[in-house]
Write a structure and sequence with these properties.
Order of helices and strands: HHHHHHHHHHHHHHHEEEEHEEEEEHHHHH
Helix content: 55-70%
Number of strands: 9
CATH class of the largest domain: Mainly Alpha
Number of helices: 21
CATH architecture of the largest domain: Up-down Bundle
Length: 534
């Protein structure tokens, strides 16, 4: 078989294996929720959180050692053994009866999350630098495995438990996942071929870990914390966001959250192709810039701003003859003519039309809505001791020319419109999906012989982001009382990554092309083709 056909066969099996592994990695989110809501197990909120987080945490932490093993022994045997071990843990999961058993099982099948570190190395060694971005993007589309679990597992559980008539039927679900993982491992072994990273077997452990001292590695990790870690966190966080902020039912909230997560996972292949064609750094500029702009637009919460508006003043000196909710009649002291001043009947606190509009979070308003109204002012009286008292206007009160009779009020309603919100979130998700591929395009370019260890560490940082961000989102919500506080945090992270990358690019330009930078800074003579070529 030609090398080209072998490469595509490996890519196809890598992507399939990663998809199944990612589906396994996220299984606990559905299974644990089912077991608690149906009363099979009575776990506390803390225990539920631990069981859901354990696979994510262990799969993330193990990416670095698994990447080291891949550099040492090659992707084919490491991937095969990893899938078999995760499958055995799933079989064990089907037999447990308490929290400790579920915890140990989660530690075991959490290995499936480390498959990313293997696949990155094993894919990159089969493709040239010019095609690595596209190949890694195709492989990374296996993130869509989480959507398989979200869409299929609830229906499987309903069928396996006969709609709740057979509560113990849930035990078949881990077995189904184990069978799928085992079958994938067998197919993987028969349709892939051995290939090592350059000089991978010759290096000592110290030599393998040496790239971790490079600041560049940690910078790539910061990017991946945002585009992968925040992506994983938002995939979970958006469901309660839609339910509690926009008051959507759970099913609708899940669909809207999928608008963010599913396209972002699938578009990773496009991010790889764009990185190959235009360069990973240029793509990251667009990705980080989009995240900065999108998160900034999502910061503003639903709020009402009330400001003084255009009031109503007396046209001449006079005395109030009558006053109602909408009219005031003032007779002029000079001419004896009666002047009627009219305002609209509105609530003194909030016009009913605006109150109704602002409470409807599902309407299609995009721009802020403004309502202005007037309410009768107050008579100001100065006592003999210089003290000031205020009371409502009454019949018989005298008024002076230009005295304020009715105060103006303007209220502007800013609404986090759900459709505009979803559109911006969709754009941010697309940017994150492209960014995931662009980050990993950097690694084989800068560290061609240490893809496993560097990719493993970057993956660890990104995975930890998926574990840490939901906790930070919850703490920020408790501190501020604002659901949009999560976007404030992500805006700062995005802006920090963009600033860091731009500073590095500026420094590289000054070191490699000082003449070009000086000319750009001075805005003087045009830059010659020779300088650009240098």
């Amino acid at each position: 078989m030609s090398e080209s056909r072998k490469a595509y066969s490996v890519l196809a099996m890598n992507t399939l294996a990663f998809t199944i592994c990612f589906a396994v990695w996220t299984m606990n989110g559905v299974l644990v929720t089912h077991l608690v809501t149906t009363g099979v197990f009575d776990w506390s909120a803390l225990q539920i959180g631990v069981l859901m987080a354990t696979p994510v945490l262990t799969g993330s932490l193990l990416r670095l050692p698994v990447g080291l093993l891949t550099d040492r022994y090659g992707g084919r045997p490491v991937y095969f053994v990893l899938m078999l071990l995760a499958a055995l843990a799933l079989v064990y999961n089907s037999r447990v009866d308490d929290f400790a058993g579920f915890f140990l099982a989660a530690l075991g099948f959490g290995l499936s999350g480390a498959s990313f570190a293997v696949g990155i190395v094993y894919t990159s060694v089969w493709f040239s630098k010019q095609r690595q971005g596209t190949a890694l993007g195709v492989f990374g589309a296996g993130n869509a495995g989480s959507a398989i679990t979200l869409l299929a597992a609830p229906s499987l559980l309903k069928g396996l438990t006969d709609g709740g008539a057979d509560p113990e039927g849930w035990r078949t679900l881990p077995l189904i996942y184990a069978a799928a993982l085992g079958a994938t491992a067998v197919l993987f072994w028969y349709f892939t071929y051995p290939r090592m990273t350059p000089h991978g077997a010759e290096k000592t452990l110290r030599q393998r870990l040496s790239p971790l001292g490079s600041v560049r590695v940690w910078r790539f990790g910061a990017y991946y914390f945002l585009v992968f870690g925040a992506f994983v966190a938002l995939s979970q966080w958006l469901v309660p966001y839609y339910v509690r902020f926009y008051e959507f039912p759970l099913a609708a909230a899940g669909v809207l959250a999928a608008i963010f997560s599913l396209p972002s996972g699938l578009i990773r292949a496009l991010g790889g192709w764009l990185s190959d064609k235009f360069g990973a750094r240029r793509i990251m500029y667009w990705v980080l810039g989009t995240c900065v702009a999108g998160c900034f637009l999502l910061i503003f919460p639903r709020m009402d701003v009330v400001s003084p508006g255009d009031g109503l003043s007396a046209s001449a000196d006079g005395r109030i003859e009558s006053i109602s909710d909408t009219q005031m009649v003032v007779r002029s002291a000079l001419t004896g003519r009666a002047t009627t001043y009219t305002i609209e009947a509105t609530s003194q606190e909030r016009p009913s039309a605006l109150a109704t509009a602002s409470s409807d979070l599902h309407n299609l308003r995009v721009l802020p809505e403004r309502v202005s109204w007037k309410q009768w002012g107050q008579k100001i009286e100065i006592g003999t001791d210089g003290s000031e008292t205020r009371r409502p206007f009454q019949v018989g009160d005298t008024v002076k020319k230009k005295e304020l009779l009715a105060r103006g009020r303007t209220q502007i309603s800013f609404q986090a419109n759900v459709y505009v919100f979803t559109l911006i979130v969709f754009v941010v998700g697309i940017a994150m999906g492209i960014g995931k591929a662009a980050v990993y395009k950097h690694i084989p370019d800068y560290f061609p012989e240490e893809v496993g260890v560097v990719g493993g560490l970057v993956g660890v940082i990104g995975g930890l982001g998926g574990f840490v961000c939901p906790i930070l989102f919850g703490q920020l919500l408790d501190m501020t009382g604002l659901w949009t506080s999560c976007w404030m945090f992500l805006f700062l992270v995005s802006a920090g990554c963009l600033w860091w990358m731009h500073r590095v690019v500026e420094r590289m330009l000054r070191e490699k092309m000082p003449g070009l930078v000086q000319r750009i800074d001075r805005h003087d003579a045009p830059v010659s083709d020779e300088v650009l070529a240098s």
